[in-house]
Design goal:
It is globular and about 50 Å long. The strands form three sheets. Strands 3-4-5-6-7-8-9 form a seven-stranded mixed β-sheet, with helices on both faces. A five-stranded mixed β-sheet has the order 11-10-12-14-13, sandwiched between helices. The protein contains eight helices and 14 strands. It folds into two domains: 5-142, Fructose-1,6-Bisphosphatase, Chain A, domain 1; 150-260, D-Maltodextrin-Binding Protein, domain 2, CATH 3.40.190.80. It has helices at residues 5-25, 44-60, 91-95, 167-177, 190-198, 212-224, 238-241, 249-260, and strands at 33-37, 40-43, 65-68, 81-89, 102-109, 112-120, 125-130, 135-137, 140-142, 154-157, 183-185, 204-207, 228-230, 244-247. This is Inositol-1-monophosphatase. It catalyses: a myo-inositol phosphate + H2O = myo-inositol + phosphate.
């Protein structure tokens, strides 16, 4: 698949940062870790990866804006375009030696996500999508699951930790959803959860209190793979609000009714 110049820049940047993260992941016990907040850690690896991504992306497109987890927002000379970047989604997994984490890069144009890359460097799975060009994992075109029945479907979410205020709502979601489905998974990376919906590994995903960089790339991936993506309130701007629900089309209406009840 030959993508646009911007998509190729994104893939190249993700691979370069991924190489750095994989090297640090092999020496995870030696990483210097500082506490950034309850249950939210930042590592030398995280900061180094963001530096690589910033150099690659802004080096190639210096007029674009910049929004990322570990550095200050940059408005950009071009107000219509912005990189939205998470250098390491799944930091806690990374710190515990669990090979389930990813780099997430999205390109926003006039308030819409038009391209996205999610790179699972530990497994060498590169997910990418561009508006109108479909969704891909490495060299393979991907599609959302074709399952139609909730009872056969697997869903993913994040479980609030460390006393977060959205815990009661999530527990209520699970109480309604678990009896109606084949299972719910919590693997610790919202970006990969959405990539797994895009590739048909999960039928759906929902979560509250995410950041723009957690979900921006996943939006275009799921959409281009044939899935539906909305805010938990259908009228919300997902990137701004940080709440999302997505699924394949046959499941979406029933699934969303269970979560939104």
């Amino acid at each position: 698949m030959i993508g646009s110049a911007n998509l190729n820049i994104m893939i190249k940047a993700a691979r370069k940062a991924g190489k750095s993260l994989v090297k640090d992941f092999r020496e995870v016990e030696n990483l210097q870790v500082s506490v950034k907040g309850a249950g939210d850690f930042v590592t030398k690896a995280d900061i180094a990866a963001e530096k690589i991504l910033k150099e690659e992306l802004l080096g190639a497109r210096p007029t674009y804006g910049w929004l990322a987890e570990e550095s200050a927002e940059i408005p950009g000379q071009d107000p219509t375009r912005r990189w939205i970047v998470d250098p390491l989604d799944g930091t806690t997994n990374f710190l515990h030696g669990l090979p389930h984490w990813a780099i997430s890069i999205a390109l926003e144009h006039k308030g819409k996500i038009v391209a996205g890359v999610i790179f699972d460097a530990a497994k060498d799975e590169m997910y990418f999508a561009e508006k109108g060009s479909g969704a891909w994992m490495n060299e393979t075109r991907i599609r959302v699951s074709g399952r139609h029945r909730m009872i056969e479907s697997i869903f993913a979410t994040g479980l609030p930790f460390a006393g977060r205020s959205d815990l009661p709502a999530t527990l209520q979601d699970l109480a309604r959803l678990l009896p109606a489905c084949a299972g719910v998974r919590r693997w610790g990376s919202a970006a990969l959860d959405m990539a797994y919906v895009a590739t048909g590994r999960y039928e759906g995903f929902w979560e509250r209190r995410l950041n723009a960089w957690d979900l921006a790339a996943g939006i275009i991936l799921v959409q281009e793979a044939g899935g539906l993506v909305q805010g938990l309130d259908a009228d919300d701007n997902i990137v701004d609000v940080g709440e999302v629900i997505c699924a394949n089309e046959p499941i979406f209406e029933t699934f969303s009714k269970v979560i939104r009840r």
